[in-house]
Amino acid sequence: MASKVSHINDPSARLKALCEYGSQVEVDNTLPTKLYFRSGRELIRMANVYLDEANYESAFILYSKYITLFVERLPSHPGYKSSPPPDLAEIKKKMKTVFPLAEEIKSKLKKRYIEEQREREELEAKRQAKVEAENARKRAEEEERLREKLAEEEKIRNESEEKWCREQEERYRELQLQEQRRLAQLEIDKDKDNNISGLNNERISVPSGNLDFIPNDLSNYMPPTDIGITTIPPVPDRDLKKNLTISDSSSPQIPVVNRDSKPNFDHFTSIGNFGGGSCNIRKVVVPTSIFSQFLKVAESNTNRNTETLGILFGKLSKNAFHISDVFIPKQHGTPDSCDMENEIDLIDYQDKYDLITLGWIHTHPTQTAFLSSVDMHTHFPYQKMMPESVAIVCSPKFKESGVFRLTQNGLNQIGSCKQTGFHYHQKEPPLFEQGEGVELVEGTSVRFTDGRK
Ligand SMILES: [Zn+2]
Ligand SMILES: [Zn+2]
């Protein structure tokens, strides 16, 4: 799975980046600590799922966030010291297993990162060797070509020298013949003269330097001089070449961890964009049967023009949430509101089925499906604790249902609004949106547990 840190090669830098994600936890002091204790249990639940699915990076981030939340952040919450002792004891107990588990995963990841880096380096070395071999082959080819060229030039030069020598020899022979003919002629002429006068027997001396004009050196001979070792292009410095090749390649760069680039969605129950979908919100799968099932449960209230409320629970699987359960608490409803009668403890119920809180569902007996100002305030803590939490509204009268979530603007406005009851909020930009990151599926039913009985 591609992750936020997979672009970092250096194992230590990669782990460091992961740890930084795990330390990104913010606590809203206006929310009661019990919500954080509940979220803490859900963090562990989600981390366990990631661990089972061998998604070690996500598991590590969530265990780290658990540690950061309860060791560093929550203790400075004003209500921390007055938290129920069992909650505090539970954290203390959990830490004994979470700490070593996080360490174990961390060393597992480190091993994996080192192994991945080794594989990367091996691949790079192979690639380098291939490039080197190719360069060597090209150099050998070039040298062979030069050798052939030199041999060819040498051959041409030898041939022209031989030709010149042959010509000179022929010329020499020609001159010798001429000289012999001349001498012979002289003999004839002399005999003639003797026969005529019979007086002069002196030999006529012949100058002996007549053959000196034959060149005895090759000073005028100009064999081609543009051949020779100086014309071979210099072989590039191999070390330099190697250096250039390395700086050209992209993989073995020194990893740079940009500390400014925080994930654009940072939430303590999220894993950042470690395999997350759009906006790093994990998908929430809602079975469509939930609407009709809930309207059936709410029917008697609806007939009395009274709202009905349920809590949504689900499971994490392959980085998506699946709503699987609705718990109907003891409640007191009116035509446009509904409150739990007392904050019931759902820990046992959640533990029994290993559930994660994913929002709430309620009816609007006479109105359309939307989020009223009171609904938005009710939904705020759900979404603050778990960014994927939804508010489902069913309108039997208008036969419509909506799966809502606060927008970032909605979270900002509601988070800073101190009013209670129905009141006005600036409506632009929109405070809530419908169906974002939600997938409706058919053919799955939801388990309803009625806590009113
Ligand atoms: Zn409502
Ligand atoms: Zn408000």
TrEMBL record:
CDD domains: MPN_AMSH_like
Classification via Pfam families: JAB, USP8_dimer
Keyword Transcription regulation (UniProt): no
Transmembrane segments: none
GO cellular-component term (any): membrane
Stored SUPFAM superfamilies: JAB1/MPN domain, USP8 N-terminal domain-like
InterPro entries noted in UniProt: JAMM/MPN+_dom (IPR000555), MPN (IPR037518), STAMBP/STALP-like_MPN (IPR044098), USP8_dimer (IPR015063)
Keywords of this entry: Hydrolase, Metal-binding, Metalloprotease, Protease, Ubl conjugation pathway, Zinc
Cofactor (UniProt): Zn(2+)
Disordered, as annotated region: 123-144
Stretches assigned to the MPN domain: 284-412
Recorded family membership: Belongs to the peptidase M67C family.
Name of this protein: MPN domain-containing protein
